[in-house]
Write a structure and sequence with these properties.
elongated, MetI-like fold, mainly alpha, three-stranded antiparallel sheet
């Protein structure tokens, strides 16, 4: 080393770029193995719900019929998505034989498991395969991985497509509850005074009403119950905890220096609330939303178990448990949906717990 080269001792230490709050929270969350495993399970459920028609079904994922490409499996999401040509040609939901008979040059890509969540597979519907067994004969087997219900409908197919209902109930209902709760809580916390008083009284009134009892009462008065109305009812009754946290955070942050600087710069109340306060108040609000998703799934499963869930042909894990009440000897109707509900609710609770610890410094210090 020459005298002109600086020694290692004389070199200034490298400064690491400061990480933001969410980056540090993510690093802390990643250190919790149970929470990461739970997050992975939730993402797995999202994939199952998204690709449910390609996992289990009797409609082709994609097919070529009379020179045109169709995607009949989308009908599992909405019946109006099924191409009209198959109704005109009288397929009646049976694709393998009709495709070969009415267009010998047709081809199709089929789901991984040829089973329908809404009906029993008939004899020789898939070439060389018998009809689904029913009642006590429908035990789990190679063809029916989770067995069949009393009508011969495949339980695995119902479980796969019921994942869509479970996730929709959680995300849609808590999305609605989060929007209402953050709006009311932010307005009360920022403006204070009589606005805060009215919002607080409203929160207290809604908190005094038993959620499940209110849902059962409202469902009884609805002419045509559907899964979307169930989501709306859960969302309209599950926002109080989110509103209280949002109110507390806005009360704490509205006197902060950066808020005062924004107000002095001429920013209006709406801009200050959305641009400056809300990003800093969002971390503690996300935790009850995560726990609320698990609660919403439990409520929907309870409603379906009591017979107040989404009407047929919608399938849900709770409706499978409801079917098991009159068929106690069919143990697979209890075990598989029960385990799915347990693991899903547990996963959301673990994600919420990990998120709470990653974003709350007081909990991190208490664990040390």
């Amino acid at each position: 080393m020459t005298s002109d080269e600086p020694s290692n001792e004389s070199r200034p230490p490298r400064q690491q770029a400061a990480r933001g709050f969410w980056s540090e929270a993510w690093q802390r969350f990643r250190s919790r193995k149970l929470s990461m495993a739970a997050l992975g399970f939730v993402l797995f459920l999202v994939l199952v719900a998204t690709f449910a028609p390609a996992i289990a079904g009797t409609k082709p994922v994609i097919c070529r019929y009379k020179g045109t490409i169709y995607v009949p499996c989308l009908a599992y999401f909405d019946r109006t998505f099924e191409p009209v040509i198959f109704a005109k040609d009288r397929f009646r939901g049976t694709y393998p034989a009709n495709l070969a008979e009415k267009d010998p040059e047709s081809w199709a890509i089929w789901p991984l498991v040829f089973q329908d969540p809404y009906r029993s597979v008939r004899d020789n519907e898939w070439p060389g395969e018998p009809a689904n067994p029913a009642r006590d004969q429908g035990t789990p087997s190679r063809r029916n991985l989770f067995g069949t219900d009393q009508y011969g409908v495949d339980v695995f197919a119902k479980m796969v497509h019921g994942t869509t209902v479970a996730l929709l109930v959680g995300f849609v209902s808590m999305g609605l509850a989060g929007t209402i709760g953050i709006t009311i809580g932010a307005t009360a916390g920022y403006f204070g005074g009589w606005v805060d008083m009215l919002a607080s009284r409203l929160i207290e009134v809604v908190m005094c009403i038993p959620t499940l009892v209110l849902i059962l009462a409202l469902v009884a008065f609805v002419d045509k119950p559907s899964i979307w109305k169930t989501m709306a009812i859960i969302g309209l009754t599950g926002w109080t905890g989110i509103a209280r946290l949002a109110r507390a955070e806005f009360l704490r942050l509205r006197s902060s220096e950066f808020v005062m600087a924004a107000r002095a710069a001429g920013a209006g109340p709406l801009r200050i609330m959305l641009r400056h306060i809300l990003p800093n108040a969002l971390a503690p609000v996300l935790v009850p939303i995560t726990f609320g998703i698990a609660s919403a799934i439990l409520i929907e499963s309870s409603l379906s178990f009591l017979g107040f869930g989404p009407p047929p042909p919608s399938v849900s894990w709770g409706s499978l448990l409801n079917d098991a009440r009159s068929n106690l000897q069919m143990w697979w109707l209890v075990v598989f949906p029960g385990v799915a509900i347990f693991l899903t609710v547990l996963s959301y609770n673990l994600v919420g717990e990990g998120l709470q610890e990653a974003t709350d410094p007081r909990l991190r210090e208490a664990r040390k």
